[in-house]
Design a protein that fits this description.
6 helices
Length: 126
């Protein structure tokens, strides 16, 4: 399953954990999945955990990998620096090409929106 703005799905009006969680919820209902387990990599874990907090009956196990659960402004700043498209193009061009292949030309917008989302999450928790 791809959420909006990721993979092959077009950019949507909403971007963030709540919006992605709603899409996961709709996917589960549409496919008539019951107590499904979710493997959430990085942000995907937040999506599953958020959905579980809103609808505890819908998910089974949630497995996480690469998910930061301890955020501070300093950690956010470090993570956001790694989302700079120009630096990625310069330092790791093969990774830039893979992002472009996976997300088309929208990969730059995706990285910028992700950086904004990280700031919002940190500001909400600090």
């Amino acid at each position: 399953m791809d959420v909006s703005d990721h993979g092959a799905k077009d950019f949507s009006n909403g971007f963030g954990i709540a919006a992605f969680s709603k899409e996961l919820h709709e996917f589960i209902l549409k496919n008539k999945l019951e107590k499904t387990s979710v493997f959430g990599y990085s942000m995907g874990a937040y999506v599953a955990l958020y959905l579980s907090s809103q609808h505890p009956e819908i998910l089974g196990n949630i497995i996480t990998l690469g998910t930061k659960f301890s955020w501070s402004p300093e950690i956010a700043e470090k993570e956001i620096k790694m989302l700079d498209p120009e630096i990625i193009k310069e330092k790791v061009p093969k990774f830039a090409l893979s992002l472009e292949k996976r997300h088309s030309d929208n990969w730059i917008i995706l990285l910028n929106k992700t950086a904004e989302m990280i700031l919002e999450l940190v500001n909400a928790t600090c």
